[in-house]
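lol ok so funny story. i was supposed to be doing the assay writeup but got distracted and ended up predicting the structure for this chain instead. priorities right. anyway since i did it might as well share w the group, maybe its usefull for someone
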Amino acid sequence: MLLVEGNELYREVLKGHMIQWGIEEEETGDAESAIEVVDAAGTFDFGVFDISLPVMNGRSCRVIAVASQCNLKCELYH
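and the output, tada:
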């Protein structure tokens, strides 16, 4: 799973849940890094994007991730 959250505390809380649920995750704090991770890793089964990321919002990041053919199913949240 790809987790993209700008707030470090929220990212840690979400990461804790993913660990408890046995979900392997890759995390980043901004959209630009998320795009680099997607380009490097190839595919993810699922992505959780903060819709209010700085510089590039989660919706734009999601569009780019999907356009890169990584077959990412995404959840946007605010």
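Strands lie at 2-4, 26-28, 46-50, 73-77. DSSP finds three helices and four strands in the chain.
back to the writeup now i swear
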